[in-house]
Amino acid sequence: MSGPIISPSCKGNDLKHRAISGLVLVPLVLGLTWWGGWPFIILWTCAGLAILHEWAAMAKLERRSLWLGLGSVVLVAAAILTHGGALVSGLLVLVAGAVLGAFIVPKCRLWSMWGLLIAGAAVLPVIILRGEGETGIYAVLYLYAVVWATDIFAYFVGRALKGPKLWPKVSPNKTWSGAFGGMVAAALAGGAVALYAGLSGFASLMLLAVVLSIFSQAGDLAESAVKRVCGVKDTSRLIPGHGGILDRLDGFTVAALLALVVALVRVAGDPAAGLLFW
């Protein structure tokens, strides 16, 4: 079955909606990231709750209200514990909630578990990396810069250069040229944040940005594969031109999770420093 025919005017409208949404959301996200504390925690917890709702609808989970109630309590509790420094307790609450949710939705146990774990992965790593200090601001800004540069330049470079498709059966619009364009842009964006923050290890941070870009794009493709299985184009229509919250945070979630792992392996007691100081 052939895909829908999209006229140039439709593409232009989509780009216009993307730009307007970005002009609204980017200052809000950057402002709350700089502010930190509970406003930042609430922002990301709300994003996680939106992902739970989008996942439940996309996966057509049974006992949806009960599952969403459990998932919401678990996600909020995990965010509060993590913000309070109880990282292990927060992770245990998240995993326990995912297991319990699987019993609530016995016919879709794996979908149930993945939904809550993905929502948690979108929320907890960025809360941990932000912390309360100034270093956390730059750690999260570095992550934003890498993922946003990847998304923007993969889109425009792919449209400009075209060429072989990256994975046509899953995401027919993504190309290898776009993927490499996104990686180069991510390296430059990560390097720019390093320069702005006065960080050493410039080359290491650029190389890490490339790795995070690869994982971000892999997360994007993975979500596209899930949506194809579920038979949906977007997880919701919450953000004009972008779809749902999960559509915007698919790559970011994977990149943030990897960034947290790298940070904790290097400096367990100070994740932001573990990510930035090389």
What does this structure look like?
With 278 residues, this protein is an all-alpha fold. Helix content is 78%, strand content 3%. The protein has 10 helices and 2 strands; from the N terminus they run H-H-H-H-H-H-E-E-H-H-H-H. It has helices at residues 8-35, 37-59, 64-83, 87-104, 109-130, 134-161, 176-197, 202-230, 245-266, 271-276; strands at 165-167, 171-175. The chain has a two-stranded antiparallel ribbon with strand order 1-2. A hairpin with a 3-residue loop joins strand 1 and strand 2 (171-175). Helix 2 packs antiparallel against helix 5, helix 3 runs parallel beside helix 5 and helix 7 (176-197) crosses helix 8 (202-230). The longest helix has 29 residues, at 202-230. The radius of gyration is 19 Å and the shape is globular. The N and C termini lie far apart (51 Å). Residues 1-10 have low confidence and may be disordered.
Tell me briefly what this model is:
The protein is mostly helical. Helices cover 78% and strands 3% of the residues.
Structure keywords:
278 residues, mainly alpha, two-stranded antiparallel ribbon, 10 helices, 2 strands, 3% strand, disordered N terminus
List the helices and strands and how they pair.
Layout lengths: L7 H28 L1 H23 L4 H20 L3 H18 L4 H22 L3 H28 L3 E3 L3 E5 H22 L4 H29 L14 H22 L4 H6 L2
Antiparallel strand pairs: 1-2
Helix pairs in contact: 1-2, 2-3, 2-5, 3-4, 3-5, 4-5, 5-9, 6-7, 6-8, 7-8, 8-9
**Strand share of the residues?**
under 5%
Q: Indicate the low-confidence ranges by residue numbers.
A: 1-10
Number of DSSP helical runs? 10
Helical percent range?
Answer: over 70%
Strand pairing plus helix content: what structural class? mainly alpha
Radius of gyration: 19 Å
**Would you count the extended β strands for me?**
2
Q: Within the largest sheet, what's the order of strands?
A: 1-2
CA-based shape: globular
